[in-house]
Specification:
Elements lengths: L4 H15 L22 E6 L4 E5 L5 E2 L5 H12 L1 H5 L29 H15 L3 H13 L4 E2 L1 H10 L1 H12 L7 H12 L1 E3 L1 H12 L14 H14 L5 H7 L4 E3 L4 E6 L3 E6 L10 H14 L5
Antiparallel strand pairs: 1-2, 1-8, 3-5, 4-5, 6-7, 7-8
Bound molecules: 6-diazenyl-5-OXO-L-norleucine.
Enzyme class: hydrolase
Keywords: Acetylation, Hydrolase
Catalytic activity: L-glutamine + H2O = L-glutamate + NH4(+)
């Protein structure tokens, strides 16, 4: 179905408005990410009934990075149930950076599954459940949500695997506190691979639309996530998805969202629309500057804020 022109015109207008802004820096702590092109800027919107609107470099692929975290969290909840998962990872915003090594005081759990510590714990749990099949399961689930077979970027994976000492330290700290099982290196390897899965804005907006459509991909009609888990995934994205910017994001934009350090931002408007943007220029908290500003404008224009 053809989307009404007004939405295409609005997306084109906002894309043009923000494309000229070169605020922010490309992440280089994963060396391979430093090769990103600062001119690249794409946006895609997929409605919960499967219509697609795109602008700019919406077909340029980038690694999903932390946007993988709510998806693997949903998978862990499906595999283990909420009670078991909550013994290993909390649901409180940490107010700290995404790579914080801080754990909760009494429980020693990571604060939430959106910070690296929580996401590594979740992947370790998936490894305990799925064993050697884990990455394959993650890849198939992400592909079903995107509506096409995805691939991963071998170079980015190797680059992070070689330099991810901080994540290794976090994983071993988690092992020390019994939050993850013995196979720390295997879990880290899968975590680095899951972060290296390649998507473009259209894929990411389709994943967001799948969440918006209560777990069913609105284009392929595949049932990807359990409806109850979608609620959990969106709740945690709302409170923790933008790390130590989450409060401001909730205030300013007011929809569940997740950012990744390669420059993607995925936002979900419940039962209405999935929004994705890509621009590798990041603010000091690791969120895409153009992505934040474009989404804030779009939320304002369309009245997307939940309140
Ligand atoms: O673990 C890391 O540091 C990366 N693979 C993912 C971090 C990330 O995307 C943070 N987002 N802004």
């Amino acid at each position: 179905m053809q989307e009404p022109n007004w939405l295409q015109e609005l997306i084109d207008h906002l894309h043009t408005k923000h494309a000229s802004h070169y605020e922010g820096e490309i992440a280089t702590y994963i060396p391979e990410l430093g090769k990103a092109n600062p001119d690249h800027f794409g946006v895609a919107v997929v409605t919960a009934d499967g219509r697609v609107v795109e602008a700019g470099n919406s077909d340029v692929c980038f690694t999903i990075q932390s946007i993988s975290k709510p998806l693997t969290y949903g998978m862990a909840l499906e595999a283990y149930g909420e009670e078991r998962v909550s013994k290993h990872v909390g649901v409180e915003p940490s107010g700290d950076a995404f790579n914080s090594i801080e754990l909760e005081k009494i429980t020693n759990r990571p604060f939430n599954p959106m910070v690296n510590a929580g996401a590594i714990t979740v992947t370790a749990m998936l490894y305990q459940h799925y064993g050697e099949r884990t990455f394959h399961e993650i890849m198939s689930r992400f592909s079903a949500a995107a509506g096409r077979q995805l691939e991963f970027d071998e170079e980015v994976y190797r680059s992070e695997s070689r330099t991810g000492h901080r994540n290794r330290a976090i994983a071993y700290l988690l092992l020390n506190f019994g939050m993850v099982p013995e196979h720390v290196e295997a879990a880290l390897d899968i975590y680095f691979k899951q972060c290296s899965i390649l998507v473009n804005c259209r894929d990411l907006a389709t994943i967001a639309a799948t969440l918006s459509n209560l777990g069913t991909n609105p284009i392929t009609k595949a049932e990807v996530f359990d409806i109850d888990r979608v609620k959990d995934m969106m709740s945690i994205m709302f409170t923790c998805g933008m790390y130590d910017y989450s409060g401001q994001w909730a205030y300013r934009v007011g929809v569940p969202a997740k950012s990744g350090v390669s420059g993607g931002v995925m936002s979900v408007v419940n039962r209405q629309v999935g929004i994705a943007s890509y621009s590798p220029l990041l603010d000091s908290k690791g969120n895409s500057c153009r992505g934040i500003n474009l989404c804030a404008d779009l939320a304002q224009e369309l009245g997307l804020h939940v309140f």
